[in-house]
Amino acid sequence: SLQIMIKKWSIPCPLPPSSAIETLQVSNSTGDCKAKLFHLSKESAYAIPTMAFSFLCHTSVLPIYCELRSPSRSRMQNVTVTGIGLSFVIYFMSALFGYLTFYDKVDSELLQGYSRYLPHDIVIMTVKVAILFAVLLTVPLIHFPARKAVLMVFFSHLPVSWICHILVTLTLNTIVVLFAMYVPDIKNVFGVVGSTTSTCLLFVYPGLFYLKLSREDFLSPQKLGACALVIFGICVGLLSLVLIILNWIDQ
Q: What's the CA gap between 148 and 160, in Å, rounded?
């Protein structure tokens, strides 16, 4: 985030051409350098699913809770508020200054834009390496519940086996690597996963669980709020997924 804020003043606006084709299309108008508070387009369908995917930390809650000293509900609440708060600040500042740098030409993979206009910048390369290590260290937290779910759903009838454990691990890792290598744009992954599993885990499932477990009257504010959460999640997920598919068809 700090690097994106600093590099905002390293790239001029209008953006310099990064290829021979853009040299013929570049405009000297400063109208492209004016920020817009709202900008709706077909790409807006990716916005809410991407945000839902970004704040999806549910799979890490139980491992983190088990690592707490004297784990309790209040301690976990503090960890959750602190983690989500810091994530929001970092995401917001990165998105804001990334947009103020590239405006309408901002890429779905923000750092790729800096590599295009600052190809040999040491700071950019350092940040990429740091993000690489951060992702590598995050994978085990996400991989553990994924493997556990696969084993419980498909192999719960079999006795515990190291062979099965290793095969599931290798299969999941292979799928992840293939997606990383062959999916052309990461926004497609964020869009589809965000509009399906992320909206379910963020909105639909918590509301359904509360309606199932709570003994309050159905017309109580809490249950009505849970119903609204479920309806909102279903509508947003379906609408985003349909718009994303239509966008693929248009392309």
A: 12
pLDDT in tens, 28-76: 445 567 777 777 777 777 788 888 888 877 777 887 888 888 888 888 8
DSSP states of 118-171 as a string?
STT-HHHHHHHHHHHHHHHHHHHHHHHHHHHHHHHHHSTTSPP-HHHHHHHHHH
Phi, then psi, of 183 in degrees rounded to 5: -80, 120
CA–CA distance, 193 with 137 (Å, rounded to integer): 21
For 103, left (φ over 0), alpha (ψ -120 to 50), or beta?
A: left
pTM of the model: 0.69
Query: 130, 1 in Cβ contact below 8 A?
Result: no
Whether 46 contacts 198, CB under 8 Å: no
Cα–Cα distance measured from residue 172 to residue 56, given in angstroms and rounded to the nearest whole number: 19
**Which residues have a Cβ under 8 Å from the Cβ of 113 and sit 6 or more positions away?**
98, 101, 102, 105, 106, 107
